[in-house]
Amino acid sequence: MLLLQAVLLLLVLPSRGQDTPTKEPGVQLPLPKGVCTGWVAGIPGHPGHNGTPGRDGRDGTPGEKGEKGDAGLVGPKGDTGETGVTGVEGPRGFPGVQGRKGEPGESAYVYRSAFSVGLETQVTVPNVPIRFTKIFYNQQNHYDDTTGKFHCNIPGLYYFSYHITVYPKDVKVSLYKKDKAVLFTFDKYQDKDVDQASGSVLLHLEMGDQVWLQVYGEGENNGLYADNVNDSTFTGFLLYHDTN
Which listed residue, of 9, 97, 99, 139, carries a Cα 20 to 30 Å from 29's Cα? Predict the structure, then answer.
């Protein structure tokens, strides 16, 4: 810096052959303005202004990866979005594994109770059960031909019917359940002709109930008749059993 200032100072000073007045004998010429005898370098000047910034240097090599920071706080739950469009049905999957065997179901047992019987002799005694001893069907043996009564072994709803040939007297017959008449039939006999009488009913029976037919009234109303070409029959069967 000192050397630069000295150079500048020399450039400012005039040369010896330029603009130097003629020296007259005995006349002391003044020194050029700004020139000191025995000069020395002046004090350093103020620093110059900063120069224009240089171009950006090349990128440095990447540094080592830092440690993983702590997890941030969970943000608030966002609003439920709109339902998307239903996608196309995918291909059918493979059959699944066979499931476990189920529990045993209710029994498929079919409840049966039925009979169909006919009269073999003319009835002469009124007010007692009529004994139908001609058996058409009595596989479960729920009808007792020794007493003329049907015995309920399966609680449920039953259908009973009778068809009587009337000859040669009037007929008054009733169907009984547990010593109580529930159905009555009367037919007046026509002279020299065979007549018919019938009746049917639905009854709910409990275990041990009994059902039978008998003539009611006096003896002159017992015109039930049967022979080799005419029958008087009594029939009953279970429609459906109680489930409880």
Answer: 9
Query: And the tokens for 112?
Result: 């049966």
- CA 81, 83, 84, 90 dihedral sign is positive
The DSSP string of 26-46 is T--PPPPTT--TT-------P
Percentages helix, strand, coil for the chain, rounded to the nearest 5? 5, 30, 65
As for how many domains the chain has, the answer is 1
Non-local (6+) Cβ contacts of 194 within 8 A are 165, 166, 167, 225, 230
Is residue 188 a part of any domain in this protein?
yes
> CA 206, CA 210: separation in Å to the nearest integer?
9
Which two three-digit tokens encode residue 33? 């303005």
The answer to the question of residue 84 being in a domain is no
- Distance between CA atoms of 80 and 221, rounded to whole angstroms? 91
Q: Is pLDDT above 80 for 221? A: yes
Beta-carbon contacts of residue 197 (< 8 Å; ≥ 6 apart): 163, 164, 166, 171, 173, 185, 186, 187
Give pLDDT, residue 22: 47
Residue 66: the pLDDT is 83
Residue 240 contacts residue 159 (beta carbons within 8 Å)? no
Tell me how far apart the alpha carbons of residues 226 and 121 are, in angstroms, rounded to a whole number: 6
Q: 213 - beta bridge partners?
A: 175
pTM of the complete model beyond 0.70:
no
CATH number where 152 lies: 2.60.120.40
